[in-house]
Amino acid sequence: MKQRRKRRKNFDWPTEIAKGNTDKFYKSTDYDMWREKVLERDHHECQFFSGKFKDGIHNPYKIRPVRATIAHHIKPIKERPDLCLDLDNGVALSFEAHEIIEDRARWKFKKKIDPLTKEKW
């Protein structure tokens, strides 16, 4: 298990996130503990590629067992800061599934297309 910093008492994360301090939240001990609980609840298995989590827009291209490394907020914390530490608002995902859900995958996982004719000099 990860060695943590000393936990602060009575820290009000919803107001900090509403101010725009999301980086401070993601570096906190409270977030580390929330992340570990979400990953343990889902048995470190990616819920997107196992077919258990669907966001309504994206679908997995193949159902397969993948190890989860990221805890994803279902409802973004910028929209709902009050749900930042709610376990029901979290789901365990792999890196690739997280990139697909956040719509960053169209730039990263493209296959390289070979040119019709290769230049030979």
Fold blueprint:
Elements: H1 13-19, H2 22-26, H3 29-41, E1 70-73, E2 90-93, H4 95-101, H5 105-108
Antiparallel strand pairs: 1-2
Summarize the model shown.
With 121 residues, the protein is mainly α. The protein has five helices and two strands. It has a two-stranded antiparallel ribbon.
Protein model, in words:
The chain is mainly α and 121 residues long. It has one domain (13-106). It has helices at 13-19, 22-26, 29-41, 95-101, 105-108, and strands at residues 70-73, 90-93. Strands 1-2 form a two-stranded antiparallel ribbon. The protein is elongated and about 65 Å long. The termini are far apart.
What amount of the residues lies in strands?
A: 5-15%
Q: Name the overall outline.
A: elongated
Could you give the order of strands across the largest sheet?
Answer: 1-2
Series of H and E elements: HHHEEHH
From the structure above, extract its key features.
mainly alpha, two-stranded antiparallel sheet, 2 strands
